[in-house]
């Protein structure tokens, strides 16, 4: 169909409400607090374990919606976010340490600690957004305390996290990308805070760009600390969804700081080139992993089509369109939107499927699990909603 | 086609030689020692990293073939195994500790250490088999020294391995299963050694059986230490290939020790029931993971068809046939053989593909990688070869 700004806004608004209805209805754990996010197609709990980062992401999402859209600025949304953060502070946060559990039981007992800093990233984002929703200063203080730890781990020394890898001096794209995202979320529109974290924002932007390899044709997921390609499959690994996600974060900074060179890099190298490389010309959709030399990636799921990759791409393309007003980009956005809406949403029970085969068939029917919660879908829908409203007002 | 014992023996002998030719020709690292086992469809190296367990498995396989079949009792095979073990002792074994690196660089520099004891299991098996091939006593001494450590980790306390899990008291099927396998390999036909490790063999047999849950209908991959089902997806996880693999190890013990009850459990509960549950009635082949309540497993690759699962099933079914002489079992063996031979071997370049989609299409073309080396295919072909020769002689 021929999409217009208006018709896209209408459709994405409907999707957002359907998706949020699913989480509001099925995921609140009224007995033990927090969210039960391992939910079947129909919204039934198939596992009561709570993944720390999923609980944090859901709090962030609720607080963001509360702060952004009038119809989500409700006591129900705010109370659910506050109940979520209380569970996090009591059970996900490791008492007396700047660390978070990756998994806890329904009751909040620790199950697993990861050697990665990502649960802590979402803990920080949840606190920062809820601080703005509630005006509660100690949430922001707790967010910035963890942010200090994240800066130490990601910029200086991650050895206190532990690691099975014995060779040092490698950079994973997810780390500077998440640090930039957390910094953007903590700072918001606060210019004093942006000044305070200026050095860390700049470092993240530079570090992300070290992943641009092979004459700027490929964003490699792992590079050496001196910005060279690493040997073997690990060095050749490309994750189009990650590159494209980093792209809209870089583009946000380029616009905020008025950096035309960064704007060009974000659009061309981090968004359009990875999208072209990652698009499956045979079946449509974007691959999960690629090898820059065309070998089959060793990850068994390399050719699957994941929901979040398509969410990040929709955000990125709409942001590029907002910046460039290039009709070719709008056309591309509509193509990705068509694929996405055809394959992922479940009109019968709400929310989206997460995992499709290469051919676009549903590989797993559940709506929430260890790696999928109330986050990528509504974040995409909310961000697109905001951009479309801006575009329509102009 | 209608298979006979003779025609299966002929075909599997041809396969074994084609598979071994692939590794003998492409994988020997004459410059740095050990094996380059990340090999493309054509046998070209696509990554020079060496996974410790793969190098150990290849040494074990070479030594086993040298000890088992006259046409592999050659200087070339023995020298390659010895060169492999020298690389292992110098670079895979952690100096001064009873631990092995999971990954080393081509030159042998440490890359990664796992919080699992499996590289050490294959290190022990490689040394024990090569000790028999060469009559070198210090190989067996080194094997038994590591076996002592494995017994400590698996039977008593694994905390020195480290773990991200904070809840104790769970048993993973792979651990007692691998301990039993290592014990069988270290002891071989040595009755003194079997006597020496009697307690550990019994413990492993008992521990494996604690994974039999739900009125003996399901082998759960993870159970509590007191033999109860664990909550959630982790507790409901079933890996048909693991259950069936454990089945032939239990059946081996049942025959060796003349234990009719164990024989029945091995055949019915560990081999036939998981095979029936795991067989894909729509597309053929055996699923990788299942959820005992029929939820979609959260593992993205759950419905893929993996080579090793089919290797273990062929071993198990032929062993059951050898024990029972039941024609229905032979028919089942032939069905699995037909699926396997139709989908996995690559007649053009040798060796087998490892990873198929649910529908049986090749998902990754490489012949060797982080989890696939010179092991499951030739082990299956050699074991079936030996059983078929015995059956034909009777």
Query: Spans of chain A of 5+ residues with little confidence (pLDDT < 50)?
Result: none
The CATH topology of the domain at 1-30 and 211-394 in chain A comes to Glycosyltransferase
String of helices and strands of chain A: HEEEHHEEHHEHHHEEEHEHHEEHHEEH
| Structural class category of chain A | mainly alpha
- What is the approximate shape of chain A? globular
What oligomerization state is this entry in? homodimer
Helix content of chain A: 55-70%
Number of contiguous helices of chain A: 14
Q: What is the strand arrangement across the widest sheet of chain A?
A: 3-4-5
Classify the beta-strand content of chain A into a percent band.
Answer: 5-15%
Give a short account of the largest sheet of chain A.
Answer: 3 strands, antiparallel
Question: What is the name of the CATH architecture of the domain at 1-30 and 211-394 in chain A?
Answer: Alpha/alpha barrel
Describe the fold and architecture.
2 copies of one chain form a homodimer. Chain A contains 14 helices and 14 strands. The mean pLDDT of chain A is 97. Chain A has 394 residues and is mainly alpha-helical. In chain A, the strands form 6 sheets. In chain A, strands 3-4-5 form a 3-stranded antiparallel β-sheet. In chain A, strands 12-13-14 form a 3-stranded antiparallel β-sheet. Chain A has a domain at 1-30 and 211-394: Glycosyltransferase (Alpha/alpha barrel), CATH 1.50.10. The first copy, chain A, is globular. Chain A starts with a helix and ends with a helix. In chain A, helix 11 packs across helix 12. Chain A binds chain B through residues 38, 40, 46-49, 101-102, 105, 109-115, 162, 164-167, 231-234, 295-298, 300-304, 355, 357-358, 363-366, 369-370, and chain B through 38, 40, 46-49, 101-102, 109-115, 162, 164-167, 231-234, 295-298, 300-304, 355, 357-358, 363-366, 369-370.
